Inverse folding.
């Protein structure tokens, strides 16, 4: 299970098994989506699979995740998402009404994100082998001329911005899965980030890095970028927005909200001179209203993320080994 968590074990699986087997310069970039030059057009291409349990949760469903997860991967390269494929793997015995409910949610999410589902596939596996249903989506988008957003582009001096409170999605899933009550319903932050990214590009076309901190949470995303760009990242611990209900739930469950998955948040590395303009553009968008500057890039400790605590000390923020909460997307 740890190999599916987006942490060190996932990275080892990709680097030592899949990348050597598949090869190719586009795969070697290991971005949220592959950037392809075809016939003069610059395309972003991404694929993702969704195995969340339960299928429905506060704030969304596996259908919403299947659209927003792939759309967001495309948006993290600055692309305008256009088209999706959709594959359903159904377990023998799943009710048609359940499949229809998921399909309706998926279609509504696609329309909301401004993308069209243009092709798909359906397979059925024997009872006991599919946990209801799984979904795979792949997406294509167009990257505007002059936009170059990659995890290798972070440089010392860049400002790190988080688009809103972290840890919400994973805690929402866990609360339903385990039947936990925290005095207030925690809803997933599942959302399409394409519009927010376009607003940010309107303020600064030279965004350096974007990443949606899904599996492995904020900590994994920051470490991936630090290692890809060979820069150090310093985060002000108290600047990272964590909702009180998420902090309380994580304290009860023994989790660190920095490592809990999000499905409607992004991390941006932007030039310091453009940080205020980008932050203002984010605040003007509903999905960036609570955006905050949380840190910066430095020449020190390249490839490492450290947090400055409220007491003036520092701590290393490691890449997670596996996943605190499996099957959350």
């Amino acid at each position: 299970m740890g190999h599916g968590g987006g942490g060190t074990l996932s990275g080892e699986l990709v680097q030592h098994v899949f990348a050597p087997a598949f090869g190719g310069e586009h795969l070697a970039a290991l971005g949220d989506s592959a950037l392809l030059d075809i016939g003069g057009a610059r395309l972003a291409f991404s694929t993702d699979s969704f195995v969340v349990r339960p299928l429905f949760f506060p704030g969304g469903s596996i259908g919403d995740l299947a659209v927003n997860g792939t759309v967001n991967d495309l948006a993290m390269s600055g692309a305008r998402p256009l088209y999706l494929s959709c594959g359903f793997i159904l377990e023998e015995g799943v009710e048609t009404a359940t499949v229809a409910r998921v399909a309706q949610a998926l279609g509504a999410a696609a329309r909301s994100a401004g993308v069209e589902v243009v092709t798909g596939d359906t397979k059925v596996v024997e009872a006991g082998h599919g946990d209801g249903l799984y979904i795979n989506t792949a997406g294509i988008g167009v990257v505007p001329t002059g936009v170059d957003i990659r995890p290798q582009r972070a440089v010392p001096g860049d400002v790190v911005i988080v688009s809103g409170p972290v840890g919400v999605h994973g805690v929402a899933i866990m609360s339903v899965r385990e039947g936990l009550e925290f005095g207030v319903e925690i809803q997933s932050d599942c959302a399409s980030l394409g519009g927010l990214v376009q607003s940010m590009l309107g303020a600064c076309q030279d965004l350096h890095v974007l990443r949606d901190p899904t599996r492995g949470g904020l900590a994994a995303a920051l470490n991936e970028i630090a290692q890809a760009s060979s820069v150090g990242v310093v985060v002000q611990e108290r600047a990272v927005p964590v909702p009180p209900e998420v902090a309380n739930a994580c304290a009860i469950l023994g989790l660190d909200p920095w490592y809990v998955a999000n499905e409607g948040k992004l991390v941006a590395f932007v030039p310091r001179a453009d940080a205020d303009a980008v932050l203002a553009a984010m605040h003007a968008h509903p999905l960036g209203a609570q955006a905050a500057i949380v840190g910066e890039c430095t020449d020190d400790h390249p490839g490492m993320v450290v947090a400055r605590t409220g007491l003036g000390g520092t701590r290393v923020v490691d890449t997670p080994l596996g996943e605190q909460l499996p099957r959350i997307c």
About this structure: Residues 102 and 251 are 32 Å apart (CA to CA).
